[in-house]
Amino acid sequence: MAYFEDMKIGDVREFGSYLFTKENIIRFAQKYDPQPFHLDEEAAKKSLFGGLCASGWHTGAACMRKIVDFNKAQYEAAIARGEKPLPGGPSPGFKNLKWLKPVFAGDTVTYSSEITELRESATRPQWGIMFAKIIGVNQNGERVYEFDSSAFIPRKPK
Amino acid sequence: MAYFEDMKIGDVREFGSYLFTKENIIRFAQKYDPQPFHLDEEAAKKSLFGGLCASGWHTGAACMRKIVDFNKAQYEAAIARGEKPLPGGPSPGFKNLKWLKPVFAGDTVTYSSEITELRESATRPQWGIMFAKIIGVNQNGERVYEFDSSAFIPRKPK
Question: Domain A4-154 has what CATH class?
Answer without folding.
Answer: alpha beta
